Amino acid sequence: MEIVESLYEIPVQDPEEEEFSSADLNWVKFGNLEHHDDVALIPYDRVDAFILGECSNVECPTRFHIERGRKRSLGSLKDFKDDEYLEYRLYWCSFGPENYGEGGGILPSRRYRLNTRNRAARPQSMRGCTCNFVVKRLYARPSLALLIYHERRHVNKSGFVCHGPLDRDAIGPGAKKIPYICNEIQQRTMSMIYLGIPEENVLEKHIEGIQRYCGSDAKVNSLASQYVHKLGMIIKRSTHELDLDDQASIRMWVERNKKSIFFYQDSSETDSFILGIQTEWQLQQMIRFGHRNLIAADSTFGIKRLKYPFCTLLVFDSRQHALPVAWVITRSFAKADVSKWMKSLLDRARSVEPGLKISGFLIDDAAAEIDPIRDVFGCPVLFSLWRVRRSWHRNIVKRCSSIEVQREILKRLGTLVYNIWGGIGSLSGALEELTQDFVDQTAFMEYFKGRWIPKIEMWLSAMKTLPLASQEASGAIEAYHVKLKVKLFDDSHLGALQRVDWLVHKLTTELHSSYWLDRYADECDSFQSVKEEYIASTSWHRALQIPDSAVTLDDNDRLFAKVLSQKDSSISHLVWNPGSEFAFCDCAWSMQGNLCKHILKVNMICDSKQGHQPSLSFQSFNDILMHLWQKPMDDSVGLDQSMAWTYQMLDQIQKLVELNGSKDIGTLVNNLPTRWVSKKSRTHVGKPSSTAALPSNSNGTRTAAARKKNRKRKRLSRLR
Question: How far is CA 316 from CA 91, 507, 660, in A?
């Protein structure tokens, strides 16, 4: 086949099929006589269709994952070739590149293998497959993608077919008649077992999954039944205690699960214990939902009951539900330690997606270190009120018996926050008045004086200085927090709360499996009961199901609102202090301190009606805009700064609108301004540096002579 040296000689191919594979394309040799690859040019927006077509290969059905990725910004290259990339991604078959068989390079199913005593760890998933290809988004033509196939066959390093129906040397007797179980099917089966779904239902779904690879067969069903039963027994018999000593057990777990750890620091006299956990699936979700989006932190969970509290980093998925993408187990909140694990987390994500950019970081603790967030992620920091509201609400209900007193105290605390945020009155005067008015509520006032008065100024300062998050985001974080408590603080596990290995085991098995299955059910439209429960897991989504006609506002005094129950029309719930983040509802869910759907629904309606006070988050947003637009008293540099910030924000919003509304990304990229960069000076041997033209002094001559002498001595020592 003739070798092509210019991409402009290669035609662009756009198959008519919705999904197409490498068999539908004409491949061309591109390069030179010494090095050339099989390449094809397709429109960049058809890359996903090509990947789906490759995954549906009848002979070797599989999935492809991104093994490596790089990215450049347009204008970063002054001189470039026609095959330079704007985006570069290496896709690898999910049955590789690692080989988890015995002996590594040789599979345990081969006739000649190493006599190792250890069995294969996961023989069905990682088979050492070498099939991989590269997708280059061209720098010169961003609307096109260059496909480079390095290895089209699904074979291992020995050249044998390593998965799929054509692998005749598969593991176990009769295994060649069925395909291997891919990661997705295995993870789905494990998730169902961890969540306690009956084995009959697990087996049914498992067989449905493997029928994607082959037809229905009695032998297939029998082997699938054995697989599910054995996997269930392994999971039930597995234990978190790898060693009687908790610290030694954690070290062993870290050694066995290096791919799920982004930072580890063992405890010593100088260093604190820090364990950062992020599975490969969580990394994918962080890149998918965290890029140019928000990341939130549910900080200091279990600070009283667990040996080590932990922080959860969350992203908001396609339904704006909080999805955990990393767990950090530590008692240290020092700035240096926080910077360490944050840098490691971001470096790991950018090793897969170099252009990852976080738009904002939500915190819920006023004592949290903000500087590391700004330094590492380079994004604004927002503050969520959910932890303050939940703590006050729970303790008011717990320590005050009268419901009238409960709603009045919560309303007064909300008014205090609103007034201090708006600069009305003084904090000391408001606290003194609150203490005098509710002096008879000794249980709550003792709690409030002991826990909140010493630090309330710090919390109010954080509310005033940082932008405030919305109630939808706060409700999503709270929903995750509630689910976490249900999963971890089960009565049967109370004896293990002081072991870190138990905590790690619970997070990486049950909790991880729960969220994996939720996302799978929603995206694949399966497990309808799981999907419905997942969609309704936040109060915000439950509030959207309440019609506006079910809400009646008190238009006279605006003291309360009435919400009719959707299950029983004879029942109604009263929401006091409507329109405020500190509203009070008499439903059972709200009486547990949670943000209920009735409060959110009433607040939604109040936001659309005039005369009601807007929420704190909306007031915070307005305050930021007014601060940007505020003209200084004199015509000073402050006016220029305000104008520059406003124009910068407006320009970014306009570009985002253009990007979302554009159908052809190529035309949008071509309209971007050219970025000029300075040419870097060469520093390799053979090129004189710019300082060589300067007049040299005697010291410089002596130094150069000494260097030559040292090089001569090194060469002589090598010859000896």
Answer: 26, 19, 19
pLDDT at 452: 92
Supply angle C-alpha 430, 434, 438, rounded to 5: 175
Tens-place pLDDT, residues 86-117: 999 999 888 878 776 544 443 333 333 333 33
Chain length of the chain: 720
Q: Percentage helix, strand, coil, to 5, in the chain? A: 45, 15, 40
**Nearest 5°: phi and psi at 574?**
-100, 130
Q: Give Cβ neighbours of residue 12 (< 8 Å, ≥ 6 apart).
A: 41, 42, 43, 144
Q: Which residue has the higher pLDDT, 11 or 648?
A: 11
What confidence score (pLDDT) does residue 650 get?
75
- Beta-carbon neighbour count of residue 488 at 10 Å? 20
Whether 65 contacts 133, CB under 8 Å: no
Given a contact cutoff of 8 angstroms between Cβ atoms, the answer to whether 298 and 291 are in contact is no
- Considering only CA atoms, which of 578, 590, 606, 488 is closest in space to residue 539? 590
**What is the C-alpha to C-alpha distance for residues 667 and 44, in angstroms, rounded to an integer?**
13
DSSP annotation string for 326-379: EEEEES---HHHHHHHHHHHHHHHHHH-TT----EEEE--TTS--HHHHHHH-S
CB 327 within 8 A of CB 298: no
Lowest mean pLDDT among 189-193, 204-208, 259-263: 204-208
Q: Is the pLDDT of residue 583 over 90?
A: yes
* 440 HSE (CA, 13 A, CB side): 5
Confidence of residue 495 (pLDDT cuts 50, 70, 90): confident
- pLDDT, tens digit, for every residue of 532-552? 999 999 999 999 999 999 999
**Gap between the Cα atoms of 14 and 24, Å rounded:** 10
User: Which among 230, 328, 347, 321 has a CA at the least distance from the CA of 274?
Assistant: 328
Sign of the dihedral through C-alpha 319, 389, 330, 238: negative
Tokens at residue 196, please? 């306690």
When pLDDT is averaged across residues 554-572 and rounded to a whole number, the result is 85
| Least trusted range by pLDDT, from 67-81, 385-399, 537-551, 642-656 | 642-656
626 CB burial (10 A radius; 0-12, 13-18, 19+)? exposed
Enumerate residues 6+ apart whose C-beta is below 8 A from 567: none
Contact 481, 301 (CB under 8 A): yes
Vertex 694 angle, CA 689 and 698, to 5°: 105
Q: What pLDDT, on a 0 to 100 scale, did the predictor assign at position 208?
A: 78
Cα 428 to Cα 394: distance, rounded to the nearest angstrom: 24
Place of tokens 């926050």: 417
Sheet with strand 572-576: strands edge to edge: 551-553, 560-564, 572-576, 584-585
- Whole-angstrom distance, CA of residue 231 vs CA of residue 202: 11
Asked whether the predicted pLDDT for residue 392 surpasses 90, the reply is yes
Percent of the chain predicted with pLDDT > 90? 40
In sequence order, the 6+-apart residues with CB closer than 8 A to the CB of 715 are none
Q: Give the SS3 label for residue 52.
A: helix
pTM above 0.85, yes or no: no
Tokens describing residue 174: 């009769």
**Residue type for position 206:** H
Instruction: Give the bridge partners for 562, in sequence order.
Output: 552, 574
**Residue where the block lists tokens 């989006």:** 293
Instruction: Give the H or E element holding residue 449.
Output: helix 442-451
CA distance 602 to 604: 5
What's the pLDDT at 489? Answer: 85
Gyration radius of the chain over CA positions: 31
Residue 305 three-state SS: coil
Give 294-303 pLDDT, tens digit per residue.
999 998 888 8
Residue 226 contacts residue 218 (beta carbons within 8 Å): no
- The answer to whether 223 touches 555, Cβ cutoff 8 Å, is no
Residue with token string 């947003």: 621
